[in-house]
Amino acid sequence: MVKTKNEYINREISWLQFNARVLQESNDKKVPLIDRLRFLGIFSNNLDEFFKVRYATVKRIVEAGKTGKSVLGGERAKDLLEEITKIVIAQQARSLEIFKAIEKELRQENIFIINEREVTESQAEFIRDYFFKKVNQELMTIILNDLNEFPLLKDTAAYLAVKIVMKNGSGAGKHNRYALIEIPKGIDRFVVLPKEGDKDYIIMLDDLIRFCLDNVFTMFEFESISAHMIKITRDAELDIDNDLSKSFIEKISTSVEHRKISDPVRFVYDKKIDKDTLQFLKEKMDIMGTDSVIPGGRYHNRRDYMGFPSLGRHDLMYEKIDPLPVKGLSMKGSLLDMIAHKDYMIYAPYHTFSYVTKFLREVALDPKVRTIKITIYRLASDSQIASALINAVKNGKQVTVQIELQARFDEQNNIEYANYLQAEGVNLIFGVPGLKVHSKICMVEREEAGELKRYGFISTGNFNESTAKIYTDYTLFTAHEGILKDMSKVFEFFETNYKINKYKHLVVSPHYTKSTFIKLIDKEIANAKHGKEAYIKIKMNSLTSYQMVDKLYEASRAGVKIQMIVRGICCLIPGVEGMSENIEAISIVDKFLEHPRMFVFGNGGDPKIYISSADWMTRNLDFRVEVGCPIYDPDIRQELLDTFDISWRDNLKARIFSAKQDNAYRKRTTGEAELRSQFEMYYYYQKKLES
């Protein structure tokens, strides 16, 4: 059934509205000034990834001569591309306005971002010295006029398009020369200049190069020289060949390499660029009608603002929190001994992620541990997880790692880790044909009293020490035999794909997640029809499955009360009479990235509570191996209900989902105290330790 605009929000448009919420953070005075700049960087980085993947997918539909209405929620692909471009142009313009406002506030704090025209004499000496020592030898400069073929531009690299007006030139730009300079990636984008009194000065690397253009083009006699920034974004979808003679690693490696020459889907340029320069570039680059052409500001790749220098101004950044211990779970003793008696849960970054690495370090050394099995989706660049697993191999353990080589934009990193782990003796599994493995599970088998006893953990997020500092995620440590027996079956499925297991506890995609949650919703519908209390509480990243949306609409019409916290895409429209009047939905965007998936079903007074690696998206339900886990421990069940309630009551960073798609902040009622859920969450766990 083709969905209509009246029933659903298009997923691409909903994603752009999520990125608009990120942009809101950069304009929020409650956010420290330097962190506001960093949110601008996140906004820009998100947009790059959107064009590489989602825009590229829609463009492929258009170029295949199809409408795409059946998969785009009733939208025609061609119309959708135009709508996306229109929204992005407006968002880019808004981001420039916000940046100018932030720049003004930075100046009030004695932080000055200067351009090449504002350089003082003393700064000029430093800049030229810096240029010759660090920049000049890194520049890739290409003169374009005499080339038979336009050079291949790197995906999302920033380039200065240079126009050189030669001396003795005549006619309409007859003797203009054009060049491209690639902005070096290996040099900090922000060059901190010598401090003057209590004033800090920063010049962008782009402007530092502009200031030194006469040193770059000394071989030409020119009247004037100017440079404006451009960049392209390429299609990042992986096209994996069917060559049976190649290993899976070889196929993924080839596909990742192919990205470098894939079709461009977006061309962004400085709107002040000379018309003849822009025309020259568009003709040479063969920019097509289906490409998104975005006039932008003076600077691109604003994702680099994520690394804006702190300048020692901790008063202009979020205060770092010290991750808390979990009550009753000591880092000093044996974690296995403690987990043997009780389940424990960490909620990063409020709790320390060190419990995960401590667990793996312990089992790597424990003489009684026989096997370790773990799934890996994204690892930190210098991973303690990988180190602990190799340590386990060196101590004689059988270590099996299911590593997902198709983790978006981490493919190369995972290929390198796969080769590294394999060389160290780790048994690697590369997943299930046609399915990504997105589950976050680990299982250990330990010999106790002549029998094998299982321990393990299951998470809503990646086993990554770096992202655990900024992503919120639940991780459950358990020795529950039923859960771990099911987990063992998941690992069996990785090695024997044709065998579909049945599970008593875990909720596993692609075979059972959708059907299990539909049954749980049906139970709430039946309870509502019989006059019983019926409710559903959902926390996830994205909701795009029309089948699940339809089911929630059905539940709403039956009288089931539904509360949803969805960080990103939400195709469901809440609060519509006769369709979704019993559904409320909010999104929270704040200091940390909200990442956990949690589901609560009233179940007639005995709530069923799950954590999961899966969002309710078609890809997670039907085309990935995902694992959801029921929560049985009464303390952890209450904790999950409490944390959901804290998030639900947020009245500072919660935005309301509605048909308007205006990202309106939730309004406080008269006399209601301010509640910022991520800050309140930390206080909640502090109080648990004190009680």
Any overview of this molecule?
With 691 residues, this protein is α/β, with parallel strands linked by helices. Helices cover 36% and strands 22% of the residues. The strands form five sheets. Strands 10, 11, 12, 13, 15, 16, 17 and 22 form an eight-stranded mixed sheet that branches. It has an eight-stranded mixed sheet with strand order 18-26-24-23-19-20-21-27, sandwiched between helices. Helix 1 (11-26) packs antiparallel against helix 2 (33-63) and helix 14 (513-529) runs parallel beside helix 15 (546-558). The radius of gyration is 27 Å and the shape is globular.
Features:
transferase; alpha/beta; 691 residues; polyphosphate kinase like; single chain; 36% helix; PP_kinase_middle; 8-stranded mixed beta sheet; Endonuclease, Chain A; globular; polyphosphate kinase activity; kinase; 18 helices; 22% strand; 3 domains
Residue-averaged pLDDT, rounded? 90
CATH class of the largest domain: Alpha Beta
Say how many strands there are: 27
Largest sheet: 8 strands, mixed
Q: What amount of the residues lies in strands?
A: 15-25%
Q: Any idea what the CATH superfamily of the largest domain is called?
A: Polyphosphate kinase middle domain
Distance between termini? 54 Å
Number of domains: 3
Overall morphology: globular
**Share of helix, binned:** 25-40%
Using only C-alpha atoms, the radius of gyration works out to 27 Å
CATH architecture assignment name of the largest domain: 2-Layer Sandwich
Cofactor: Mg(2+)
Domain Polyphosphate kinase N-terminal: 8-113
Domain Polyphosphate kinase C-terminal: 335-499, 506-678
Keywords: ATP-binding, Kinase, Magnesium, Metal-binding, Nucleotide-binding, Phosphoprotein, Transferase
